[in-house]
UniProtKB/TrEMBL annotation:
PANTHER family: ENDO-1,4-BETA-GLUCANASE. Keywords: Carbohydrate metabolism, Cellulose degradation, Glycosidase, Hydrolase, Polysaccharide degradation. It holds the Pfam family Glyco_hydro_9. One of its GO terms (biological process) is cellulose catabolic process. The keyword Hydrolase applies. This is cellulase. GO terms for molecular function: cellulase activity. It catalyses: Endohydrolysis of (1->4)-beta-D-glucosidic linkages in cellulose, lichenin and cereal beta-D-glucans. The keyword Membrane does not apply. Its EC number is 3.2.1.4. Residues 1-231 form the Glycoside hydrolase family domain.
Length: 236
């Protein structure tokens, strides 16, 4: 797009999936000499997320104005326009953005647990705080950061925050084995209606069912995953 806007919602989704892939296929990444590269890539993002989370109930969710940045074609070193930073707070919440960022950091905490336990613990601390923030202070992030509506809007409204909260709680259970998070993930997941249309930056339910089956081996999550795959194959 020729711009350098930091859109937190799709960025966090990307980081979660990168960390997930590094965990699931670590042997292959290692065999082809790319494991440290993927870890460096994930850490580049999680370093930013932790800086963007200076307090338990504050998360900077976007840096840069969409239209202004889109209109500029050039090097970031040459950008002189105002580039505002937009944050979530208790009065301007964003449950899905806080949840997805928590998921990314929780996944990263697992990825770095063996090789960098101090960094892993730091990621996990931020993940827990962000999940609590998103769960306690409910709201749609693109209402709190209106500029994001033009680019990465939450298309499901307030009902569309449960999937990210389920995703975050599932990853936190994976990282901690604390059944409080498992029960929370199941509770959030129970709000799902029908078969998801896609697995994307805005809809995590299909990913939740895969991860929850890995963690629990409960038939419900296997059945839901199969239904999602069948629907995409038959209706794609």
């Amino acid at each position: 797009a020729g711009d350098y806007v930091k859109f937190g919602f799709p960025m966090a989704s990307t980081l979660t999936i990168l960390a997930y892939g590094a965990l699931e296929f670590s042997e292959t990444y290692n065999r082809i000499g790319e494991l440290e590269h993927i870890k460096d890539t994930v850490k580049h993002g999680t370093d930013y997320f932790m800086k963007a989370h200076p307090q338990p109930n504050v998360l900077y969710g976007q840096v840069g104005h969409g239209a202004t940045d889109h209109a500029f074609w050039g090097r970031p070193e040459d950008m002189t326009m105002d580039r505002p930073a937009y944050k979530l707070t208790t009065s301007k919440p964003g449950s899905e953005l806080a949840g997805e960022t928590a998921a990314a950091l929780a996944a990263a905490s697992i990825l770095f647990a063996d090789t960098n336990p101090t960094y892993s613990a730091e990621c996990l601390k931020h993940a827990k705080e962000l999940y609590n923030f998103g769960d306690k202070y409910r709201g749609v992030y693109s209402d709190s950061i209106p500029d994001a509506k033009k680019y990465y809007k939450n298309y499901h409204g307030i009902n569309g925050v449960e999937d990210e909260l389920a995703w975050a709680a599932a990853w936190l259970y994976y990282a901690t084995k604390d059944t409080t998070y498992l029960n929370a993930a199941k509770s959030h997941y129970s709000k799902k209606s029908g078969i998801p249309f896609e697995f994307s930056w805005d809809d995590k339910y299909a990913g939740v069912s895969v991860l929850m089956y890995k963690l629990t081996k409960e038939d419900k999550f296997k059945t839901d995953t199969e239904a999602f795959c069948d629907a995409n194959i038959n209706n794609g």
